[in-house]
Amino acid sequence: MKFVSVRDLRSRSSEVWRELGRERELVITSNGKPIAIVSATDEESFEQSLQEIRQARALRAVKQMQERSVAEGRDKLSAGDIEQEIAVVRKGRRR
Hints:
18% strand, alpha+beta, 3-stranded mixed β-sheet, YefM-like fold
């Protein structure tokens, strides 16, 4: 996968877009750190590509929540404990 700096994207954008056509994906960096992934698409596959990206993000978020739950010991809560936590949160929202 090719990396392109924000500066290069600004200064030679037409080259970068041509490169995207060849590479299909580019990583945009700022100060040497990745900040975005640009993925080529077309009119026919745009909606499906967008849906797949959103699905991947949702799966990653669920995985992170599961990992955080295990790290904090919440994976061992009983169903009753979970219901109690939910009740406390709901009660706090009513105020």
